[in-house]
Amino acid sequence: MTGAQLASDVVALATRLGLTVATAESLTAGMVAAALAEVPGASSVLQGGIVAYQVSVKQNLLGVDAQLLAEAGAVDPRVAEAMARGAREALAADIGVATTGVAGPTAHQGKPVGTVFTAISTASGTETFEHHFPGGRDAVRRASCEAVLTELLGALSRGTNGARG
């Protein structure tokens, strides 16, 4: 399924469920929020997004622990989890999604190109996902966007008990 179709399905299902979404994006730099915003009717679902490319933004706007960032670096499943939770809380959304990873062209903090962590956060908890995407910078960024939209659609499809709050 393409990113556009995934985004359309996410908006349709979130609208039907009456749920809102916020994004926290590092390597995708707003691609997820933009994909959702392309869908007519997205304003009933998309609360907003934070492009957190720099560590200081992850820490100051999303509440990612400074010690975690110093010890683990920005490309870590715990950072993705904190980013998703931070977006949900900062933007008063039912669901927060996050992307962090290495798009390239070179490795970052000892992590190879294509290493990506995504997360989906609701009031009932946060789920993280690890990915290793092939290809260059554009391919990794597109794959990351599609992955988190797929994960979001899955979370919405499974039900969102406790999503509000």
Structure description:
The protein has about 160 residues and is of the alpha/beta class. The chain has one domain: Maf protein. Helices cover about 45% and strands about 20% of the residues. It is built from 6 helices and 5 strands. It has a 5-stranded mixed β-sheet, with helices on both faces. Helix 1 packs parallel to helix 6. The longest helix is centred in the last third of the chain and has 22 residues. The radius of gyration is 14 Å and the shape is globular. About 50% of the residues are buried.
Secondary-structure topology with pairs:
Blueprint: H1 3-17, E1 21-25, H2 31-37, E2 46-51, H3 55-62, H4 66-72, H5 77-90, E3 95-101, E4 115-122, E5 125-132, H6 137-158
Poorly predicted regions are 161-165
Distance between the termini: 31 Å
**Number of helix segments?**
6
Q: Could you give a short account of the major beta sheet?
A: 5 strands, mixed
Name the assembly state.
single chain
Give the fraction of residues assigned to helices.
40-55%
By DSSP, the count of extended strands is: 5
CATH class: Alpha Beta
Count of structural domains? 1
In the CATH scheme, what's the topology name? Maf protein
Shape: globular
- The mean pLDDT is 95
Structural class determined from secondary elements: alpha/beta
Order of helices and strands: HEHEHHHEEEH
At the fourth CATH level, what is the homologous superfamily? CinA-like
Radius of gyration: 14 Å
